[in-house]
Design brief:
The chain is α/β, with parallel strands linked by helices and about 280 residues long. The protein contains 9 helices and 9 strands. The chain has a single domain, classed as Divalent-metal-dependent TIM barrel enzymes (TIM Barrel). The model has no long low-confidence stretch (mean pLDDT about 95).
């Protein structure tokens, strides 16, 4: 949900859309530094979240953050920015911060995975008394991005000391684009059997439900409306009715209409379109 007009407006937007869970950006996703959050805005946000019953709420980290880089300057900036993301999320009472693991723009894959693990340990060591999770998002595998296989994510966790404070986010577009065939019944079964074996379902904290503009194995991250891409409605029907995922937040990152920062809050037609499709796939329980 957009935070245009302030964080409390995001909660109001979620209520209008009858959401049960929510994701926000706690600061501008395309900037290193975010505006300070006034205490009164934090209090209003937390109060509205509690009143709405929306749970959990997560934030998504800035796209600029790259914990896999061996460039010292960029790494220092990334660590500082991710620390700020975690502190903001903690002040807002969020479950966690969804983070793209990073790209090994220089060095190697193995070195990049080790740098991610080391960076997360540094950040979490300095925040021993907070509950906010880091939620690593499985990626589509564009370029030198890491985290597009379950094995890579497991390697990061295996190198960490504070791995108990790290969860996983699965994105349906990313899964298909990275080569996991969740579109077919057989591929769906293989994918989640592998996930359970390699990472474990207790590690899974969040789903991003997005269709994919590009086909299986394309390694291109292009989100589409639900049922209008290569993932297809059958895969989403399986996910929303899968007992293993009951109670997990399932969040949309599909294209939106142009929003407004001020004035009355109204439902976004494109969000409602996608939410209606997904809700229509749920079997009566």
């Amino acid at each position: 949900m957009s935070v245009a007009g302030g964080l409390p407006r995001a909660v109001e937007r979620a209520v209008v859309h009858k959401c049960e869970a929510m994701q926000v950006f706690a600061k501008n996703a395309s900037q290193w530094r975010g505006r300070p959050l006034p205490p009164e805005e934090i209090r209003a946000f937390r109060r509205l979240v509690k009143r709405s019953g929306i749970t959990p709420v997560v934030s998504h980290a800035s796209y600029l953050i790259n914990l896999a880089t061996a460039n010292r300057g960029l790494r220092a900036q990334s660590l500082e920015a991710m620390g700020d993301e975690l502190d903001r999320a903690d002040s807002l009472g969020l479950l966690g911060v969804v983070l793209h693991p990073g790209c090994y723009t220089d060095g190697s894959e193995a070195r990049g995975l080790a740098l991610i693990a080391d960076g997360l340990d540094l950040l979490l060591r300095d925040r021993r008394h907070t509950r906010t999770l880091v939620i690593l998002e499985h990626t589509a595998g564009q370029g030198t991005s890491l985290g597009f296989t379950f094995e890579q994510l497991a390697t990061i966790l295996g190198l960490m000391k504070a791995e108990r404070r790290v969860g996983i986010c699965l994105d349906t577009c990313h899964l298909l684009a990275s080569g996991y065939d969740i579109a077919s019944p057989e591929g769906y079964a293989r994918t989640f059997k592998a996930f359970g074996r390699i990472l474990g379902f207790d590690r899974l904290k969040v789903f991003h439900l997005n269709d994919s503009k590009r086909p299986l194995g394309s390694r291109v991250d292009r989100h589409m409306h639900i049922g209008e891409g290569f993932v297809g409605l059958d895969a989403f029907r399986r996910i929303v009715n899968d007992r293993r995922f009951r109670g997990l937040p399932m969040l949309l990152e599909t294209p939106k209409s142009e929003g407004r920062a001020t004035g009355p809050i109204v439902a976004d037609p494109l969000d409602m379109k996608n939410l209606t499709v997904l809700r229509g796939l749920l079997k009566v329980r």
